[in-house]
Amino acid sequence: MTSRAATRPVGTVTRGTTNPNRLRRMDRWIAAVHGAELRRAADPLAVDLGYGAAPWTAVELLHRLRTVAPRTCVAGVEIDPARVAAARPYERDGLVFRHGGFEVPVPRRPHLIRAANVLRQYDEDQVAAVWERLCARLAPADGHTRGGLLVEGTCDEIGRRHVWVALGPDGPRTVTFATRLGSLDRPSDLAERLPKALIHRNVPGEPVHAFLRDFDRAWAAAAPYASYGARQRWIRAVRALTADWPVTDGPVRWRQGEVTVAWQALAPRL
Q1: Within 13 Å, how many C-alpha atoms sit on residue 30's CB side?
Q2: Closest-CA residue to 58 (of 93, 90, 15, 35)
Q3: Is 150 helix (H, G, I), strand (E, B) or coil?
Q4: pLDDT in tens, 154-164
Q5: b/e code 131-169 from CB counts within 10 Å (16+ = b)
Q6: Per-block average pLDDT, block size 10, for the chain (270 residues)?
Q7: Which of 31, 82, 89 shows the shortest CA–CA distance to 60?
Q8: How far is it, in rounded angstroms, from Cα 154 to Cα 158?
Q9: What does DSSP say about strands 112-116 and 95-99: parallel, antiparallel, or unpaired?
Q10: Which of 249, 248, 226 has its CA nearest to residue 236?
């Protein structure tokens, strides 16, 4: 007989704060960089883990992913059963809601797990174990694909500023900073939205602190481009960063108010 403890969801209930369009920057990035992987999958499944008190983000994820991979299905997973019950009326073709946590109770390995604003309440020393558990649930890599993707990060309440880590079955790959450029005074404003693995490392001697320091300097040096708009200033600043930091994307993404850097360059020092 299965014990009650064995079936209990893994994790703790979050505050559940959510708003329509809060995760649009993350979704836009996922569609751009992971859409081809979803299209190659025979039966692509995405999980919105910890979607919160209302189902808006899961509904939006289905719509945005299906614009690039029409066969994608989405499962919203929440540890609070009352939230699951409230979301069930929003189920439709390709969208279901399930009670669960970090064990990700879905019938097959997902090609995407999005966990936004979930680990914020956890201790830093808990993050690695959660990442490992979630990455183990991802669809594996094969000869035609790099496997599933875990996207874990934090944003503000209306989605103007967002930082996330992308991980594959092999572990962390990149860190992406994304912002509404008109809301930004300087790039280090994004520090308050660093994911749990990095937010306590924004101190002298840590790589993420050095990166944000250099980004602020590049932003200041690009001030003459502000007359052409915040987007042109951002592009110029990011281009300057590429001289010293392993930026993995290009101007198409920079124009969206994004920059992605290899994880190993920003990873915390032991």
Answers
A1: 36
A2: 90
A3: strand
A4: 999 999 999 99
A5: beebbebbbeeeeeebbbbbbbbbbbeebbbbbbbbbbb
A6: 56 78 96 96 96 95 98 97 97 97 96 96 95 97 89 95 97 98 95 97 98 98 96 98 98 97 95
A7: 31
A8: 11
A9: unpaired
A10: 226
